[in-house]
């Protein structure tokens, strides 16, 4: 479990941010899993299902493996959980850079009970076509109207990006193709308003290479992650070094 837990509230900016600081990445995964299990249970009890948007990248891998472990998986009513890939590179699902492929490998393929659905992007060469198909499937979850996410799990890039929302670029609304990612690789993503509307947001940030970005977010620097920072943050000691200075 988390060795240290600190809470930070920024009332001046009408923001409520909770910072959970753990010793290392494994402890972060443990603390985040506990919180996620609670949020999933609450959503299912309240709405009869839970819509969970999942982050890509390397940091969530340990969390996904923990959620799939028998002790934790047994506490989740998976047939009432809809998993949603929050953003995706324009690659096939079997590509090493695919977020859906990572999620399948570390979570879905390890579960003893399948979730209600996994909503991915199904890229076949045309980003906008993939976005259109995803948008239609997303809206179909609520009879044709885009539903509200129950939980959005998010990561933090070294440049302050989250999902595929990047600095110095307009934050796309709804669901969008992103054609000007810094690495030059087109992407598809849930937009800012969709993520901002989530009933709960959980951020993960681990490693000293995330410390500068986390400090900027805590300072209120204009970054995509800052715009969604009204959330629970699960970070390790290495990442939290500058955030501590802002508390």
Automatic annotation (TrEMBL):
The gene is pgl. Keywords: Hydrolase. Its EC number is 3.1.1.31. InterPro entries: 6-phosphogluconolactonase_DevB, 6PGL, Glc/Gal-6P_isomerase, NagB/RpiA_transferase-like. SUPFAM superfamilies: NagB/RpiA/CoA transferase-like (SSF100950). Hydrolysis of 6-phosphogluconolactone to 6-phosphogluconate. Belongs to the glucosamine/galactosamine-6-phosphate isomerase family. 6-phosphogluconolactonase subfamily. Residues 24-229 form the Glucosamine/galactosamine-6-phosphate isomerase domain. It comes from Microvirgula aerodenitrificans. This is 6-phosphogluconolactonase. GO terms for biological process: carbohydrate metabolic process; pentose-phosphate shunt. It is an enzyme of class 3 (hydrolase). GO terms for molecular function: 6-phosphogluconolactonase activity. Pfam families: Glucosamine_iso (PF01182). It catalyses: 6-phospho-D-glucono-1,5-lactone + H2O = 6-phospho-D-gluconate + H(+). Pathway: Carbohydrate degradation; pentose phosphate pathway; D-ribulose 5-phosphate from D-glucose 6-phosphate (oxidative stage): step 2/3.
């Amino acid at each position: 479990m988390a060795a240290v837990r600190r809470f930070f509230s920024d009332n001046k900016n009408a923001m409520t941010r909770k910072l959970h600081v753990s010793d290392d990445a494994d402890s972060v995964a443990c603390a985040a899993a506990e919180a996620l299990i609670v949020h999933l249970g609450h959503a299912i009890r309240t709405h009869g299902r839970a819509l969970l948007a999942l982050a890509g990248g390397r940091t969530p891998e340990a969390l996904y493996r923990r959620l799939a472990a028998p002790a934790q998986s047994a506490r989740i009513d998976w047939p009432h959980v809809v998993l949603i890939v929050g953003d995706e590179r324009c690659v096939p699902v079997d590509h090493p850079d695919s977020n859906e492929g990572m999620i399948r490998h570390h979570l879905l393929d390890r579960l003893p009970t399948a979730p209600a659905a996994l909503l991915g992007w199904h890229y076949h060469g045309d980003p906008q076509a993939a976005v259109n198909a995803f948008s239609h499937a997303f809206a179909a979850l609520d009879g044709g109207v885009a539903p509200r996410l129950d939980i959005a799990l998010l990561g933090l890039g070294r440049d302050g990006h989250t999902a595929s929302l990047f600095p110095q670029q307009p934050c796309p609304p709804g669901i969008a193709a992103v054609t000007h990612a810094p690495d030059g690789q087109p992407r598809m993503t849930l937009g800012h308003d969709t993520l901002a509307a989530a009933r709960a947001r959980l951020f993960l940030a681990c490693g000293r290479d995330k410390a500068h970005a986390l400090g900027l977010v805590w300072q209120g620097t204009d970054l995509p992650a800052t715009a969604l920072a009204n959330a629970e943050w699960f970070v390790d000691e290495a990442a939290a070094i500058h955030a501590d200075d802002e508390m």
